[in-house]
């Protein structure tokens, strides 16, 4: 243990900081603090361009939560973030660095659209479940493309999953610009609109669709499986002590494949929900980087299933807020800037969770 | 010039940004720090070089700005991964995300303008006399020559100087190096920052040689390909040069096939560098299945002084 005591101005109070490596509690205030620090940090860059950061953040907050429409949009964005965030969280549990949620989401959207292209006349009762299955399976296969090189050729999954993102995006662009382009679309790079039977029903008059039920169900399943089933125990053991796990007869390769199938499948499901519930067609730029934001969603929640709900809503709000600053002439990619800085304040701040902070009143003579 | 020579020149020039980025990554990883911020550092390098180029017209200033901005991100990465012992993978991802947003924020007001002067091609007439390769060497831009010098210097530094030996030992076993009196943290900081500046140079060379105007996500994954090239090159600068040119050749081959053949849609040709990366890495993994792949032993493991192992 090492530490020091710093007297605060005035001399009556002091704060003592002690390193305590045995500290096990999760510091809930670190995610909160990192979001605040990230806003200040990004604010400096905004201010350097001569724009008031308060104006920008005010606009973002207003855009994301200022109206029922804004809240609806934020929740709509939170659905794919939650599904992808869950997907990457499961992989991160055994230190499989899946950063391919973006590509897995895109192929999920493509596969769901394929159902509408090749079987256009299915009734809703058949079309929707088929689209769900196609979306999930396509994402899972994309995940498998990352898992197999890792398990059989020791290829780092970071690189494969990321390369596959670019491949998926190019595949999407090919489809929406060439074979699947809507002939009645006035040259718009998108597939024909889905029929009502191929759309996920929305709730009330809002754009919020029942895809959020998938997301909540997935959260619940994740919680049950990782907390209350032996599989979760296996994952924990694998990440804590791979050598012991191997002696216990567990196969890391089997788990990597399983985890990547689920991870990819959930992202694929997010892609299905996005085309069927929100855009109602496959189109150019279907994802504003959901797959990348999902990484932040997962870390902000510290892989906790219920924390994921909160962090996905927060990151959804940042994306929606990012759109609303376009009205004052700023690029929406400001959202990425804020998200990136959240991530490094978060991991930088984690060092603080190893310290114990105590207040002491010097005038009492105590420490 | 015939087809092969044109392709060779194209491979070398489009491989050069990859080479700079790979060399930057090699420096950082030799010190034991994974840098996944390469893509972001290239973007920041590109946008700063672009802004300085359209506002001042000076090549020197724009390259310096690109390198300094990326170096600043490198300082951040070193602070997070070396001082705060944060997860290096997440730190790098954070830097890439942040820099992607920041670069498009910075570049937006200048969008649509052309870079006034790009890196000049050095026509070295004396070299034309060399059979076959003379023609290639006569048509390379100035930065390619800089990259040759960089490869030679880094190779010499890594394998022929005491500092290089120290650096390699830091990457393999920081605790042993520390016990031997090598200043581990200083080495890590210096090489992460220097490597990041090379990534900034990679971004700057991209915009000053290839694309005359800024657009978002200009690097289109080249930083990530560089991360793969580091593995492919087995953390060795000379191999990095060969690997970068191989990928440069794939890139320009795709571009050329687009002009020659109408049968394959350009989307599929553009997939080539990404798919090649995966296939090449699978080949490397299969070939190295029973032997070490050259990776520094302590890569990615933060060194905590109190916990000597």
Automatic annotation (TrEMBL), chain A:
Keywords: Cell membrane, Membrane, Transmembrane, Transmembrane helix. This is ABC transporter permease. It is found in: Cell membrane. The chain crosses the membrane at residues 28-55, 75-92, 99-119, 125-146, 158-177, 208-225, 256-276, 282-301, 308-328, 334-352. InterPro entries: ABC_transp_permease. It comes from Cohnella herbarum. One of its GO terms (cellular component) is plasma membrane. It holds the Pfam family BPD_transp_2. Its main location: membrane. PANTHER family: ABC TRANSPORTER, PERMEASE PROTEIN, GUANOSINE ABC TRANSPORTER PERMEASE PROTEIN NUPP. It is a multi-pass membrane protein. One of its GO terms (molecular function) is transmembrane transporter activity.
TrEMBL record, chain B:
InterPro entries: ABC_transp_permease. GO terms for molecular function: transmembrane transporter activity. It is found in: Cell membrane. It comes from the Bacteria. It is a multi-pass membrane protein. Keywords: Cell membrane, Membrane, Transmembrane, Transmembrane helix. GO terms for cellular component: plasma membrane. The chain crosses the membrane at residues 31-52, 59-80, 86-106, 140-159, 189-211, 267-286. Pfam families: BPD_transp_2 (PF02653). PANTHER family: ABC TRANSPORTER PERMEASE PROTEIN (PTHR43370:SF2), SUGAR ABC TRANSPORTER INTEGRAL MEMBRANE PROTEIN-RELATED (PTHR43370). This is ABC transporter permease.
């Amino acid at each position: 243990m090492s530490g020091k005591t710093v007297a605060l101005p005035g001399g009556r109070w002091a704060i003592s900081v002690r390193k305590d490596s045995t500290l096990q509690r999760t510091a809930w205030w670190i995610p909160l603090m990192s979001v605040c620090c990230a806003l200040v940090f990004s604010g400096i860059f905004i201010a350097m361009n001569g724009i008031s950061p308060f104006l920008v953040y005010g606009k973002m907050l207003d855009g994301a939560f200022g109206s029922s429409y804004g809240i609806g949009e934020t929740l709509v964005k939170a659905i794919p973030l939650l599904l992808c965030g869950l997907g990457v969280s499961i992989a991160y549990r055994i230190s499989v660095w899946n950063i391919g949620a973006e590509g897995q989401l895109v192929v999920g959207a493509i596969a769901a659209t394929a159902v509408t292209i090749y079987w256009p006349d299915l009734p809703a009762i058949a079309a929707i479940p088929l689209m769900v299955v196609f979306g999930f399976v396509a994402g899972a296969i994309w995940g498998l493309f990352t898992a197999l090189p890792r398990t059989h050729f020791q290829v780092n999954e970071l690189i494969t999953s990321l390369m596959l993102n670019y491949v998926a995006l190019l595949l999407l662009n090919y489809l929406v610009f060439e074979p699947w382009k809507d002939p009645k679309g006035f040259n718009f790079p998108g597939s024909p609109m889905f029929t009502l039977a191929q759309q996920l029903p929305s709730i009330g008059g809002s754009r919020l669709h029942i895809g959020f039920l998938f997301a909540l169900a997935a959260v619940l399943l994740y919680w049950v499986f990782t907390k209350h089933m032996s599989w979760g125990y296996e994952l924990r053991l694998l990440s804590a002590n791979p050598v012991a796990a191997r002696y216990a007869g567990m196969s890391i390769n089997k788990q990597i494949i399983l985890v990547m199938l689920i991870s990819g499948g959930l992202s694929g499901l997010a892609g299905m929900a996005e085309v069927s519930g929100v855009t109602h067609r496959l189109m150019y730029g279907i994802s504003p980087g959901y797959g990348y934001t999902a990484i932040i969603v997962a870390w902000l929640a510290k892989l906790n299933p219920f924390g994921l709900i909160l962090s996905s809503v927060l990151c959804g709000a940042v994306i929606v807020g990012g759109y609303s600053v376009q009205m004052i002439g700023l690029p929406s990619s400001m959202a990425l800037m804020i998200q990136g800085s959240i991530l490094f304040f978060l991991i930088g701040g984690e060092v603080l969770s190893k310290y114990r902070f105590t207040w002491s009143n010097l005038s009492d003579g105590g420490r | 010039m015939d087809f092969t020579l044109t392709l060779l020149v194209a491979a070398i020039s489009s491989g050069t940004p990859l080479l700079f980025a790979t060399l930057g990554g090699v420096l950082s990883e030799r010190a034991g720090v994974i840098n996944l911020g390469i893509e972001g550092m290239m973007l920041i390098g590109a946008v700063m070089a672009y802004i300085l180029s359209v506002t001042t017209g000076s090549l020197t200033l724009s390259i310096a700005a690109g390198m300094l901005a990326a170096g600043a991100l490198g300082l951040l990465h070193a602070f997070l991964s070396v001082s705060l012992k944060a997860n290096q993978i997440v730190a790098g991802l954070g830097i890439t995300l942040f820099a992607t947003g920041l670069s498009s924020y910075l570049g937006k007001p200048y969008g649509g303008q052309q870079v006034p002067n790009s890196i000049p091609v050095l026509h070295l007439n004396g070299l034309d006399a060399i059979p076959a390769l003379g023609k290639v060497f006569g048509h390379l831009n100035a930065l390619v020559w800089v990259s040759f010098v960089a490869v030679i210097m880094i190779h010499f530094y890594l394998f022929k100087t005491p500092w290089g030996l120290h650096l390699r030992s830091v990457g393999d076993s920081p605790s042993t190096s520390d016990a031997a009196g090598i200043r581990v943290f200083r080495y890590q900081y210096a090489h992460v920052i220097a490597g990041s500046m090379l990534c900034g140079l990679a971004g700057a060379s991209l915009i000053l040689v290839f694309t005359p105007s800024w657009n978002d996500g200009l690097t289109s994954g080249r930083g990530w390909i560089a991360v793969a090239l580091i593995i492919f090159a087995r953390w060795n600068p000379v191999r990095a040069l060969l690997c970068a040119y191989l990928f440069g050749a794939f890139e320009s081959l795709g571009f050329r096939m687009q002009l020659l053949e109408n049968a394959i849609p350009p989307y599929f040709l553009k997939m080539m560098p990404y798919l090649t990366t995966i296939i090449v890495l699978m080949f490397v993994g299969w070939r190295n299945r029973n032997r070490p792949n050259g990776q520094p032993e302590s890569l990615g493991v933060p060194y905590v002084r109190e916990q000597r192992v």
